[in-house]
Amino acid sequence: MTTDAIGVFDSGVGGLAVLTEIRARLLNAALIYVADQAHAPYGERGLESVRARAFAISEYLIGEGATTVVVACNSASAAALHELRERFPTVSFVGMEPAVKPAAGATKRGMIGVLATEATFQGELFASVVDRHARGVSVIARACPGLAAAVEDGADVDDFVNRYTADVVDRGADTIVLGCTHYSFIADRIRAAAGDGVEVIDPASAVARQAARVRSDRDAAGTGTTRFLTTGDPRRFAAQIARLVGTTPKVDAVEIPDVRSGRIVVVRGDITTQPVDVIVNAANAHLAHGGGVAAAIARAGGPAVDDASRAWVAEHGPVPRGRAAITTAGAMAAGHVVHVVGPVFRDSPEDEPHLVDAVRAALDASAELGAASVAMPAISAGIYGYPPADACRVIAETADAWLRKGGTVREIRLVAFDEATAAHFDAAVLSLRSRTG
Ligand code: DGL
Known about the structure:
The chain has helices at 16-25, 47-63, 74-87, 100-106, 118-122, 124-133, 147-153, 158-170, 187-194, 204-215, 234-244, 292-301, 303-316, 351-368, 388-403, 419-436, and strands at residues 5-10, 31-35, 66-71, 92-95, 111-116, 138-143, 175-178, 199-201, 226-230, 251-253, 263-268, 278-282, 324-328, 336-340, 373-376, 411-416. With 437 residues, it is an alpha/beta fold.
């Protein structure tokens, strides 16, 4: 294994421009490049899912010996740069941020255009860059759907480039920032479309300079090797490198599954006394907490839980499938109760998707509340008649898939009062581990 390497990643070919510039500055560094082509384009995925990819790939690169990771992708930087630094504090991360600062210095008319993916504009990073650096300057944020994918495929980009560039130039921009690393490869096309008098700023070399700064003192000790990896088709990636960079290196395929942002644990005991942010209730649609877990939660929470439940139903009507009702936890230690309605078991093909919807709704609502820890019972087992082993499996698998999307939840406790259900939860969690390592 390589040690003290520099890992570089992007959804695909965009980061190659940054990689090339890093190599020009650090002749001996051991470089590892991952193109996450099985999950591209990032710009059109949700931020959470891009964040999950950034976590998984960074963890992989660190495992392969990277001590510096260059996030050569604006979308991934927008989705995850801050969280990556928190999650891997011993690693130095160099990320991309739209070059609003130099653009604000360069514009004569006080109007700059930023071309980037939708994901880049959604992240807080863009808002904070504008906030910090665009003082007194107007910024036109132009999302460019389809453009990164066209660069990736070597397809004709002219229509996209003409449309997106004209949009910002017609609105008065005299400086254009390339806010997606894929656009480096078509910078000349964008310059031509923008016409004379418009400056186009490509931050690829500034980022490479920053990476070089972080590493220059250690460069001499490196192996000078570059490994190219893709989660997609290695032959396709090799052809893309040849087309865009003009070299023909060996490319390997790699599988990098999402990692979970939190853990799943099985707890034996009383759900109402769990020291968590959210307790999930297996409720009925009317939030009439008459039996099973619901009755225990209503009892432990005191009248506040019943009152809030009645108020919720009075305002919104019965709780529909796939939705959660949030109430106070009353006298319990938890912050909130999230009520979801699982299926009454009918032995029909709809049972499982219905239960999946309930688990997801509970976790989505917990995430909205900013919860770090959630206690969940065996929804639909017990009085709702779902066979407990199956219910526990569906709940554990859904929680596992949900945690792989990233987010703030660090722990999901699957809580069972009786030993038989706890054993089913144990078996379900064990089988997740044996499948995913
Ligand atoms: N190259 C990436 C960026 O800088 C992502 C492009 C994409 O996959 O959408 O935003």
